[in-house]
Each structure stands twice: as structure tokens, then as C-alpha cells.
Description:
The chain is mostly beta strands. The chain contains 11 helices and 56 strands. Strands 16, 19, 20, 21, 23, 26, 29 and 30 form an 8-stranded antiparallel beta sheet that branches. The protein has a 6-stranded mixed beta sheet with strand order 15-35-17-22-28-27, with no helix packed on it.
Amino acid sequence: MTIVAIHRDPMAMSPISVRRLARPVTLSEMAAGMHLPPDFARRGRICINGHEVPRGVWPLVRPKPHGPVPIEVTFHAPAMGGGGGDGKNVFALVAAIALTVATGFIAANGIGFLGIAGGSTAATLAAAGISALGSMLISALIPPPSLQQAEGKNNRALGTASATGNVLEPNGAVPRVVGTRKIFPPLAAEPFVYFDGEDEVVEAIFILAGPHKLEGLRVDGARIEDLSGVVHEAREGWPGDARISLIQRQSRTEQIGGELRGHVVSGGDGSVLESSSGDLSDALPMPRTSATREAPDEQQLQLAFSAGLHLDGGDTKIRVPFRLRIRRFGEETWRNLPELHFQGASVRAIRSTIRFRWVDDASGSSDAASSDGWVEARIASPDQDGGPDWQADPYFDTDAGGADYLSTSTNSTTDVQRVILSRYEAQFLLDREAFPPGIYEVEITRGFAFQNGQYSAGAYTLNGAVRDFWGYQGGAASPSIAQTRDRLADTVQLVRSVSIWNEHPLPTDDFAAIAVVARNQELDDVSVLASGYVQDWDGAGWSNWVTTSNPAPHLRDIIGGMLSAKAVHPDLVDDVALVAWRDACTALGYTCNAILEDLTVADAARIVGAAGYGQLGMSEKWGVVRDYDRSAETPVQVFTPREAQGFSWSRAFADLPDGFRVTFVDRDRDYAQRQLVVYRDGRPGGLVEQVTYEGLVTEAEVRERVAYDFANARRRGTTYSLTASAEAVVCRRGSLVGVQHDMLTRQAGQGRVLDWELDEAGEVMALTLDDGIPLLNEPFMDEVPNLAAEPDLSVLGARTGLVLRRTDGTMTTHEVSTPTGRVTRLELSAPTSEAGIDHDILAVVGRKASELRRMIVFAIEPRDELTFDLTLVDEAPEIWAA
């Protein structure tokens, strides 16, 4: 196979320069032999089969023939003007060549014949070329139900252990189900994970756009009804439905999962401080700071004693003190909160929560746990020698002369206020006037653990002496703490910092929703079999709400339904075409079962329409453009040189792959993703291209669509163009029309009817036209006595057919009996009705059964003076022959 080098100056009218190379040479050597502009080496581009090769490797790349792939090297000189020459899109300049390349071969490292590694930059550029599927998306009458791969989608995975899934970003797209699909719905808000006693609970709410029928709710494949500790509530999403009541708040979680480090001690008796740097501050407790979100109603610090709280596994009660302080973001001064003590004796993990609640009325009695949990809160703690004392903000002090700490023994006499302690929770009630809502920083520091029996709350002493639980004793020479950590389990984890708002997660009724509250369960892979409700045709209008996989109601819903941002007015919707398409989809078994998410109206309409071999049509009305077998239909218009000008045609010789490797969601495999290789001619082997079909969920549907796409590419590779008069207004995209031109057939003629003759029965037997037209009515071969005397054997048996476009718009076909010649009077072999025959109607003649080329309107573009540019493709009834 030879290598073809091609170049033409994009701004010149000179012919294309073509060189055929018998031996491989480098791209640089090839360029030297072409007539290229002086600055080509700096600004020009070289492509191989439509794919740009980086300039730096031109001296290294030596194209070589490889299998059936054609080698076309194209040289693209920089265009004059326009600015940004180096930013021109070379793929646009070589689209005709690029469309002949199947990228499946290149992406599979087939580019090795270029002498470039398959994973290199050049290979990546090559794989970015236009594929056979890309060609179909551009030029097919009904493009495949596929989308370009979306880039940059920001689906943030939830980072909790109790619930996973995609959380919708602000203004994010909510998915909508067309037909019926198994879907893993997104979370409307972050899951709220919290501690309730010894349990860990998660609240999560999942949503879909618009009303949906919801069935078969599962978690990790298990039916939700079979899971213990899980309750759920669902609403289909109808306007006016009662709002979800199971979950009525939303939260934002900061996953921390770090230890609240206490004193670092050495071995031995487990009480001597140890610092690797020599600085004792490295061995002291380390504060942890977290921040709230904007103006929450509540903030939680969730703590866990991961190894329990005990001394050598015994039942000795152990206390761990905590000091917290808070300040509004941007302020310098911290406000101290009462010192808290947590107490317990357990070898099991202990969960607990510190809650900050912003309230309008912070009055109310304080309380404390009696034995385990949060047993003490102090507004004042004396200092040890050299250590600071602790004084809580006056907000928490009644200053009534009572005890400066809260415990079960001082509940009625304490000066501590606005603090509520229980076994599992410590609550601080923050008045909104004293603590204006906003963003707050919260700092927490733990002290060293000690035995409750050695502690006196009234005197704040441990073994008879005041201790600094956050400092040390003994001076710098022998620093230590008063309680050995030997055989003591007191590790505290700051698990989460959670901001909570008392606002419903769903502000509107436009969502189908599933609320789930699970206790000690992980909500991973929550799925549901969802069917989108849509208004279906009831014989008089679109008012019957149903679930259906018929594409027609869903296409109408996309352009004019309740979820459309700018719904098309019902008067502008072509219901006649949509209803006809709906009935056809029902009869032919066309279905669409897709998930629409983050798509434009055009993309959503493409998926739904293509599943029913149609697409959205937009003209004076919004409807559908269908592709179907039109063999029994009559063209709506005929175009001849009398009504049109500038007729031309072009043919694309597409290099189709031998098959498609189709990725689709298989309903028979519980909607799991599946790949299926379908070969063009049923014979395995050769080049296979990757395709993803949306909306098709059965193998039969996929195979049928692949057969259609290949047939469409083969049978409609020719496009025709013409400029027509105002008569083109009767056409739309997808209309069946007839075209006659001497570029299509040797025998072509047309004229306008001047007069007609009637027989005794009052039927038309002959027509007179305004111009002479060629006729062929030749005997058959067996009727010719001397074949040697015949000048043209190819016309033997030829008959002339006549097409009349009558005044009512119908077209009728007739056989002409007038002998061969150029005539103005046409005799009909069989008389026809006079209905619809009038002066100046169009008459078209040609060989019988091929008087016209039947075509489908691909595009219409209006021009000046009531003319239209039409692009046409062949009717190609062979597509539907199977």
C-alpha cells in the first residue's frame, strides 16, 4: 500500500497537491518534498489519517502501511488572519479525512505502525479523532442514543462510614427516570450521622426529579424491609403531597477521626512526661479546633473512647476532664465554657456527644448524670502551683452564691446554668442574643484521666491536692502527672464535627423522595426500581398520568412538561405527530428506559427520541422527526430544475468498523452494565469500535439498533443539496420528497400541464405540456426482429412513467403510451380521474418505476426571497427490509 501525502493552501484556489510515496520516509522529509509555505515548520500542522502529530516528533515518525488502515498524510498550512493561528482546530480542517478513521483501532494501541508508543501523547491525540459513532452523531438522520463522554463532573463521594453516595452539590442536577430503571438515587443533603446512646444512627434522604413510582428499595442488594434497625418513608413526588416527616433537618459534617491527644508519658510507672524534642510542651495535651458552618442551629462534637474507659479492665470509675472555649469567626477573644468531666468504667467502646444549641430561650434547669457519662460541669476550677485556673464565661454563671460546679449532688444549689448533662450528651444552650448566629470556632482539650474515688469535686482535689489536669507537677527536672497511665485505657477520638440546621432538606414538592433512618447500619448502595410518571395520551389530550416506557410521552414531557424550565406552549406542540409516533412505538415495541441527569434539553431529547427511531423536530411546531419504512407513502413535494436550482450531491466513503462493542444496562441482569459485541455482517473479527447506548436495556433492542446504524451509514452515505422556491414550505425535516434531475438519471423531463383530453367516460386520456419532454417506449428484446440493427440495446423494453402532482397535493403515477421521441402531448395507457388535474400542475416523466428519486429531508435553511436550502438523503427502504 502506498502512502499518500496531501496539501492545499486553505486560502488559495489552487488544486490539491498529492504525492504518492513508494517508500516510508519521516514526516520532516516528506514535508521537505511538498510545496509548503516558508513558516510551515513553525506554524503548520501534519496529520496522519486526520490525527495531528506533535511537531517535536516529525523527524522521528515514519508512517508505514499497516493492515487495512489507509495512510493519508495531510499538511495544513497556517491560515492568514484571524489571530491565534496556533490555536486553530486542525480537526475541523480535515473533517472529511478524519471521518474515515475508526478510533477503536487507535485507542487499542493500533497506532504502533507510526512508530509511536500507544500510551504516548501522539497516541492520545490520535484517539481523539472522530469515530464512526461520531460521524453518525453528526450526519445521521436519527443519531444513535449515545452522548459524548462528560468531563469534569463533580460528584463528591460522601466520606462517612455509615452512609455513602453522591451528594448533590448546590444547584446540582437531579436525575429523572424515563420508563423504568434501577437507580442509585443521589442524596439530597449530606447524611447526618450521630450517636444515640450506644448506637450510631444515620439519617439520609434520596431524591429524584418529579413524580416517580418507587418499588423494590434495597440496601447493598438486601430488601430494606428485611433489615433490622432501619425505618424509611417514601413519597412519589406529587404536588401537594405531605412532606417527608421522618427527616426534618439537614447537616454538614467535617470528618475528623483524630485523637484528642493527652499527656505523653514514658514507660516505667506511666506518669513521667516524655518529649522527643526536649520541649515539655510537646508532651502536654494538644488542643483540637473545629469550625461550624454558617449560622447552624446546633453544632455537635462527636467523641468516642475507642478502647473503652477503664483501669486494667476493672470496674474502677475513671474520669476524663475536658475544657472547651468558643469564639465567633474573626474575633480575637475566646469565651470559656464550663469544664466538663466524663466518667465511666467499660472495656467496650463508648460514644458520646457535646452539643452546642442556639436557642431563643436558654432558661431551664440544669442536670447531670449520676454514675456514668457527663457527671460534672465547672464554671470555676482553682489553679495548681504555677498552673492557670479556669473561669467560665459569666453567661454560664448565675452568680447566686451557690456551688461553682454542677453534679447530681448540687443540682438544686449550683450556680452553673444553661448546661444539661446526661449519660451520653453534654449540652450547652447558647442564647441567640448572647451568641449571635454565625461561624464559630470551637476548641477542645482533654486532661489526664484519674480515678473518681481519689477525686473531691467540692475542693477540686486529687488525693488531697489541687492538680492541674492539663499541666504537670514536679518542675522541669522531674515532670509528671498525678495519675499513672499504666494499664489505663482512656484514648479519646474526636470523630466528627457536625453543623445542623432545623430546616427540611426538601424545600419544594418537586421531588420523589426516600428518607431512611438506620441504626448501626451502613447505607451503602441504596437502590430503587423507579418509574417516572408522565402524562400519556388518553384519546383527547395528554392528561392521563401513567408510568410507561413509550418514548413519545416522555419526549413531549421534556419539551412541555412540568419539569421544563421553559415549557413550550401546548399550541406549539405537534400532538398529531407525537400521537402517531406513540402508536408506532407501541406497535413496533420501541421503548426507552433511561436515567436523565445533568443533560441539556437537546441531549435528553436525543436519548428519548433515538430509542424510538426519532428525534426532536423544531419548526413552526415542536414535534418529532421519525425514521421508518415509507415505502407505501407518497412524497409531499417534488423538486425538479423548474422548482429548484444549484442541485449537487456528495458521497462519503465511510471507513466503518467491523462491529460495535456496545455498553448498555441490561434489564435481564438486574440493570447491571454489560458489553455486547455486534458485528456488522455477523462475522466476528476485524476492527471493533466502542459505543454506549442509552435507554436500551435488552440485547434485542441493542442488536436492532446496531443493525439500523450500520445500514443507515451504508445506505445514506450520499447527501444531496438544492435551493428551492417557496414550494419547499410544505417540507419539514424528515419529510419524504421526490427529486428529478438529469444528474440522477439520463431520462428526465418535466413540464406544466396546459390542457388535457377526456374520453367518453369523462376521464383524462391525454395531457398537453408546456415543453417537449423525452419519452422512451421501446419493444422488448423478444419483440425485435433484428437485434443487430438496434442502435442501443440498453433501452429495449424501456417504458415511460408519469407522475402528476394534483391540486389536492396527492401524487399519482401513470404509464405513458406515446411512442419514443420528444413530445408535448402524452397519451396515458390507462385513463385517470380528472379530480385534482388543473392548469399548471407539475408533470414529471422518467423511466417507469423510477420517475423520481425518493429522498428524505435532512435539513432546511431559509434564505432570502422565500427560498430555502435543502439537504436530502436517500429514502433507502433497504434499511427496513430486515
